[in-house]
Amino acid sequence: MFALASILILLLSLLAKVAYYPTSADAEIILGKDETARVLLLTAHPDDECLFFAPTVSSLLAQPSAPDASGRAVELYSLCLSTGDADGLGEVRAGELARSLDILGIPEGRRWLIDHPELPDNITLSWDASVIAETIKPYVLANKITTILTFDRGGISSHPNHASLPAGVSRLIASLAPTADRATRAFSLITVPLLHKYIGPLAVAIAKFDIAFAALLRRYGAAPPGRVPVFVAGVADYRTALNAMMQHRSQLVWFRWLYVSFSRYMWVNEWTEVRPPPAGSGSSLA
Ligand SMILES: *[C@@H]1O[C@H](CO)[C@@H](O)[C@H](O)[C@H]1NC(C)=O
Prior knowledge:
Pfam family, one: PIG-L
EC number: 3.5.1.89
Family: Belongs to the PIGL family.
Protein name: N-acetylglucosaminylphosphatidylinositol deacetylase
Largest sheet: 7 strands, mixed
CATH class: Alpha Beta
Bound molecules: 2-acetamido-2-deoxy-beta-D-glucopyranose
Strand order of the largest sheet: 3-2-1-4-5-7-6
InterPro entries: GlcNAc_PI_deacetylase-related (IPR003737), LmbE-like_dom_sf (IPR024078)
Structural class: alpha/beta
């Protein structure tokens, strides 16, 4: 069993080395067709940006920030919906978030931290979808956001604050009338099963294998169904994420060290599109 696993790991890492395929084709799905993609990362607590979304943040910030020869640019914005005040550390954590975003590379003017009485950091509470939608709407409109990125209904860690976000985003995009040439789209970070969650760097090899395999199938006209946009971190990206996480000093308890060592979300992010609720479903949206 052990020998088999070792051979498998060896094979996968070899494949990852020889078959490096860039992931930009997958980024296209998220960035859409606008000349400048204005992407809003929507989180629930300070440190979510490091613990869950860092591979995406570093991939997007590596894109040109002004339209280059290819005519494409990406602007990345961050909106965090609570100060993380469950333990009364809201003010400390606000400062930690600012330092983390400095290191990741999202400047002041493109980042906001909300402290809303109906959106408290609380591990037992779900947030109301319409409060979320109303809270984020002004930021989306003022900055002409083209893509919103957030958690899925699994919330990665099952935190109900995280898990509430996609329903709020879905409600918002349903309420924004798309203009002829532009509609705001949204994507959720896919929650993987627990067993799959703590395979850390091995996830990189597997993700690159998947990407290479999909590219191979496409070359022979056998496009795999349902392409999933994927961002994979490099070692330098991982170090930046770790450095940003170090700014969240109040959160660095022993089990977070385990997390940052083994979590695949420090290395690989896979996304799925958030659809607006079906017309007429109204308040049945949880
Ligand atoms: C979280 O919400 C529950 C239920 O409303 C409440 O009893 C608890 O005190 C809250 N915890 C914090 C840290 O505010």
